[in-house]
Amino acid sequence: MEFFNLSDLLGERGSTPVNKVELEPDSSPTAKFGADLRSAREARGWIQEKLAHAIGYSATHVSAVETGRRSPTARLSRELDRAFGFDDYFVRKSRDLKSSTILEGFPEYVSHESKAVELRLFALGIVPGLLQTPDYAKAIAAGAVRRGSITEEQAEERVAYLARRQANLRREVPPQIHAVLDESCIRRPVGGKAVMAAQLDELVAFARMPNTVLQVAPYAIGEDRSFDLPVNIITLPDRSLMSYAESAHQGHLERDSGAVPSMLTAYYQLQAFAHSQAESVAVVSRLREEL
After folding, report:
1. Separation of alpha carbons 277 and 71, rounded Å
2. Contact 242, 234 (CB under 8 A)
């Protein structure tokens, strides 16, 4: 969907404060909405508190939307257009967000993931995104296009978004990453033999890194598998915990609360039933040889 240019709506932009969070508008549609909101606010010369008062929200909420940590609601978008005197500019942008393949809550999770000191991943059916090769990721997205669940443009958005997530983790001091893959992840063929072979090679290479642990949860553990959905648990620099889980149509972000420590306990239990890293690498390598 095409939108107006903010500079045309607002005229000259205001000055930029020295101390503020840098935005990455290309990182997700939610982040782009937040960047446009900040531009509109600063062009008016308003601080977040003034805009918050005008639209009936807290300054903390405005800040979270601007930095892409919260998705805009239809009501918020209407109030923004009313405050700025726009003709459904933000309403249209919020509607466009509905067509994004990125689930609600995920952009906020990713903003924390990029700062995490430890990540614990559990995946079902497909290799988790952070461990996917580009060709594997493209094959998964292409399958969704063929089924008609997403458009080619959305597929490109999905693959590009994943590449940015992976790049965020290649920093000077990388996080410790624990990845438990259900056996279905490595046995499900994706993209043909060549793509799958390269993906299995990537998993072996991942396991050899000094900051990683790779484990395969075999089918044989049966009902002792702790999770029935993919789960991500992250530890932030202040040692607080956050988890993210999703179904096919909804994502849920859980901050440090009673639910997250219990989820971490379940993850430890899963690791106890899973193959060791040495056993897991051997299983992956055998499958690779069969290809």
Report:
1. 38
2. yes
